[in-house]
């Protein structure tokens, strides 16, 4: 059967594939089997790690590896990042990936990206749940214990559905003008991300353990403080119901938004309350501050200081974070295990977490970060063609100073004026309202409204651009980035004000944030190519929004600094120069 399969693959020049594994963590996983489909409604299953010894021979496995390595044969997968990571971790090299149906579904704005849901949506066919084969809970078995006959039917359905979806989605991408984004950005990025995940990052577990103890103590102190405010009464600071009862009923705080379960007490609501501190008594202000700090410390403790040591790979002693290309509507990468994007940026405690991410000191490596400076505002300048913004960037001015000078018509900008200009600059990208300005500045809503009007009066090009984007979205039900990535906005004409406003904010934000995401993705592809061409040992290890982190091998720092400052600004051509700042350090938190 192997000869027939190889012959068919050669004739077709393309196959879809899916892997069956012992774990959901690709770099901690044994390869149990591979299914391959060359034509729709058919498939082959290659048992590799089943426990009943019905596996293909080591010689046959080498033939399969050659097929995956063959650059003349196209490969298609659903969530290729996972499958390629598993294969790479098990000694395979995968060349010429040309399509990923999960990424395609994301580009097309599908609500669910799972193969099972897409199969139901496109073919009205239900797929067998994995639990039917491996069971649930304490009785769950490993896929390696599933009989080969059952595994064959289950796995071949995956590779077959992937091939069938590819035929549909390729046409839809073409029709919607999205094929270029798929072929020039997303697909070339997959092997770069797989490599980045495989490289992993060194983590100092002792530092995290010390930080965890320190956070425990600070959490205890905050709980004691809350008791003293409430007269030794104890409440669960994580419980919105208990908190709202104390704040609203006992301490007279204004009522917040009501839901089915009670009053809203999330972080933004509490910060909102703090911004009206003239309406609150001292105890309420103190308690809200305690709750916000308690939540931040508890989240960092559970998500990072306690969770990361459990995620360290036993074989490599490194952390292999998973980066998802199809996790957002704007095109930004998201990450999990752990989510590196959510480590607080401007807090001391967030930076302490970053200090646990280290270079390989034993091999004299250092870390280098390369960060796009104010890329989203530069993309706004490019798209809006606002002359004041374009000039400020072309003259390399401090953009917030320049905005404050224009708004206040003064050469002597105060700290407060610069701060308000900065809030407005960034706020414009996220559809800032008068309420939003008042929350961040302690100004009244009326003053917030005046400042926004003043801003748009001075930057009329931005106002015109925002209006034109919203008009375009209302007519076409989508918006797009510089590269042609689209976001579907079905509710942009909703009669419900809140729903419509949220869609309008998305319409303004997507072309800016999505274009920035595309720029860094293009830069990653070029940098990876150049590292390979120059045969450098340096590794790309982390991407967080506008920042790339590299582990620099001894003697390669100057080449890498030259490379990123040359390639990153030229990833895409804008009407303003893109600048890149590099910093180095032995840990992510000590970059200078």
Provide tags for this entry.
alpha+beta; four-stranded antiparallel β-sheet; globular; 23 helices; five-stranded mixed β-sheet; about 600 residues
Summarize the structure.
The chain is α+β, with helices and mostly antiparallel strands. The protein has helices spanning 2-12, 58-69, 80-89, 101-107, 115-123, 131-134, 148-175, 179-199, 205-229, 240-250, 267-275, 282-305, 308-311, 348-354, 375-384, 387-394, 399-408, 415-429, 434-441, 445-458, 460-476, 497-533, 557-567, and strands at 14-21, 31-37, 44-47, 74-77, 97-100, 202-203, 258-259, 262-263, 322-324, 334-336, 357-358, 366-372, 478-480, 486-488, 539-544, 547-552, 580-585. The protein has a 5-stranded mixed sheet.
Radius of gyration: 27 Å
Strand arrangement, major sheet: 3-2-1-4-5
Instruction: Report, as a whole number of angstroms, the end-to-end distance.
Output: 59 Å
Helical/strand content category: alpha+beta
The major sheet is characterized as:
5 strands, mixed
Q: What is the overall pLDDT average?
A: 94
Q: Report the portion of residues in β strands.
A: 5-15%
**SS summary, helix count:** 23
Which geometry do the CA atoms define?
globular
Question: How many beta-strand elements?
Answer: 17
**Residue runs with pLDDT of under 50 for 5 or more positions:** none
Helix content: 40-55%
